[in-house]
Design brief:
Layout (H helix, E strand, L loop, with lengths): L2 H24 L9 E9 L4 E4 L4 E3 L7 E7 L6 H16 L5 E7 L7 H11 L4 E4 L2 H11 L3 E4 L6 E4 L3 E4 L4 E6 L13 H12 L2
Parallel strand pairs: 4-5, 5-6
Antiparallel strand pairs: 1-10, 2-3, 2-6, 4-9, 7-8, 9-10
Helix pairs in contact: 2-5
Length: 207
C-alpha cells in the first residue's frame, strides 16, 4: 500500500473515531432522580391477560402508544392504596404534561374486587384511571415480573393483603423502564412525594 493510500485510510479512521466520540459527548446523561430508579435495560412484559373495570380485556396491547404507571393493591386497603390513589389523582395533570400517561391500578384481591367495585373505586379518584384484576394464576406472574409481591394475611372474610408500595413505569413500547419507590427523610415513614414523582417521570419521559 503506497503512502497516499495509507493517508486516506488514516483519515477515514480518524473521521470515524471523531464521529463516535462526538456521539458519546452528545448522549444525554442520566437524570438525577429523587424517588425513582431507572432499570439498566428496558424489558418488555411477558404476555398477561386481565379484565378492567368495564369488563374489557386488559393485556399487553393496552400498554402500547403511551406511558403507563402500574401499581398493585386492593380496594379494601385502609391506608397505602387510598393515599397513593389520591396522590396520583393530584399528580395526574403533571404526569401528562410531557407525554400521555395512563395510571393502572392492579387489584390483587379478585375475590372481593368485582368489576362493579373496581369501577366505583376508580370513579371516586379519577375515571380516566384503569383498574384491572384477574385470577391469582394471572396476577402472580405479572406482579413478579413487575418486581412486586403480595400475600394474604388472616383467614375468612376479614383477611387483608400485604403488598408492595412501589410503582413501575412502562414506556410506550410496553417495556418496564423504571420503578418509583417510597423513600424516607429519616423523620417519617417512607412515602412517595407527589412533586418528586412528577419531576422524575417527566425527566424519564424525555430520555
Amino acid at each position: 500500500m503506497n503512502k497516499m493510500a495509507l493517508a486516506v485510510v488514516g483519515a477515514v479512521m480518524l473521521m470515524g473515531l471523531g464521529i463516535v466520540t462526538a456521539a458519546k459527548w452528545q448522549r444525554p446523561s442520566p437524570p438525577v432522580l429523587a424517588t425513582s430508579f431507572i432499570f439498566p435495560e428496558a424489558r418488555p412484559l411477558a404476555p398477561f391477560h386481565l379484565a378492567d373495570q368495564h369488563g374489557q380485556v386488559f393485556d399487553n396491547s393496552r400498554l402500547l402508544g403511551h406511558w403507563s404507571l402500574m401499581f398493585i393493591g386492593f380496594t379494601s386497603c385502609p391506608d397505602v392504596c387510598p393515599t397513593t390513589m389520591g396522590k396520583l389523582a393530584a399528580a395526574y395533570d403533571g404526569m401528562n404534561a410531557k407525554a400521555p400517561l395512563q395510571v393502572v391500578f392492579v387489584s390483587v384481591d379478585p375475590e372481593r374486587d368485582t368489576q362493579a367495585k373496581l369501577a366505583s373505586y376508580i370513579e371516586f379518584f379519577n375515571p380516566e384511571f384503569v383498574a384491572a384484576t384477574g385470577p391469582h394464576s394471572d396476577l402472580y406472574p405479572l406482579t413478579r415480573q413487575l418486581g412486586m409481591i403480595y400475600s394474604m394475611v388472616g383467614e375468612g372474610d376479614s383477611y387483608t393483603i400485604d403488598h408492595s408500595a412501589s410503582m413501575v413505569l412502562i414506556d410506550p413500547e410496553g417495556r418496564k423502564v423504571a420503578v418509583v419507590k417510597p423513600r424516607s427523610d429519616g423523620q417519617s415513614l417512607p412515602q412517595i412525594r407527589l412533586s418528586e414523582m412528577v419531576s422524575d417521570i417527566q425527566a424519564i419521559q424525555q430520555l
